[in-house]
Amino acid sequence: MFLEQTSIELIHAGVERGSFGHVLFDFDGTISLIREGWQQVMVPLLVETLSRTPEAEPVTEIQQLVERYIAKSTGLQTVYQMIWLADEVSVRGGQALAPLEYKAVYNEMLLARIDQRIEDLKAGRAQPEDWMVPGARQVLEGLRQRGCTLFCASGTDHEYLAVEAELLGVAGYFNGGLHGATDDYRNFSKKILIDRIIEDHRLAGSDFLTFGDGYVEIEDTKGAEGVAVGVASDEASRSGVNVAKRARLIEAGADVIIPDFREQQSLLEWLFARRG
Ligand SMILES: [Mg+2]
To answer: Of 60, 77, 191, 252, which one's alpha carbon is 20 to 30 angstroms from that of 158?
Structure first.
């Protein structure tokens, strides 16, 4: 069911809404497209690493295993994906590196892919809008105008998050702070942050709203009884819904699915309308 004359899909149309004061955003794939294509770096790295182990299955099987895992773990801190990798290497009789070493290899490969984008933004050869989910800035503005406190949470390392949010000119909207991953990974997660926001501000779950394109933030939000908007962004084409993301977000419990924020005005009107 779609909100009239929009591509805003209401999965749980009856969800409680109207009083959100605290709003969490995921960063990559939800606001930023700078890291678009990270899966094309992580999947081959994991597949190749696992294929080199003594007891490796045929590569097609490993490919499927890795793709399933990445889909399910999107939104988690990178280090957990690398802990998974190290475990899977050991299970197959291989000598695993430390997860933080795998993470350093991955970061280096990904940075090689996105370096040009960052340099172009820094030099003004690219505009922030070139590397943002359409309408993201407007939705942040609209929420601040409604008096919301905005938080940004990312599984990407904090140092990168801070630079990239600044380059896109969105850091200033997050009056609740930017919260990226650190090497002290046990003490940070989207779940810890969500639980802390709800506890600190004594919120009912339904006062809390999340926007994300990953399984993890949607599941954690629904676990805290908040409202979750799944952003099924097609990061490469920048228009329409990514069908695989949509399915995963619905499975994680998303209340609403949007392709991007082009219709943010209708979306915010619906989210902030008190019913009855
Ligand atoms: Mg994301």
So the answer is: 252
The rounded Å distance from CA 10 to ligand 1 centre is 21
- Cα of 95 from ligand 1 centre, angstroms: 31
CA of 1 to the centre of ligand 1 (A): 25
Check whether 275 has a pLDDT greater than 70.
no
Cβ atoms < 10 Å from Cβ of 148: 20
Q: How many CB atoms lie within 10 A of CB 275?
A: 7
**How far, in Å, from the CA of 77 to the mean position of ligand 1?**
10
Domain range list for the chain: 9-33+132-271, 38-123
Distance 32 CA to ligand 1 centre (A): 9
Q: Domain spanning 9-33+132-271: which superfamily? A: HAD superfamily/HAD-like (3.40.50.1000)
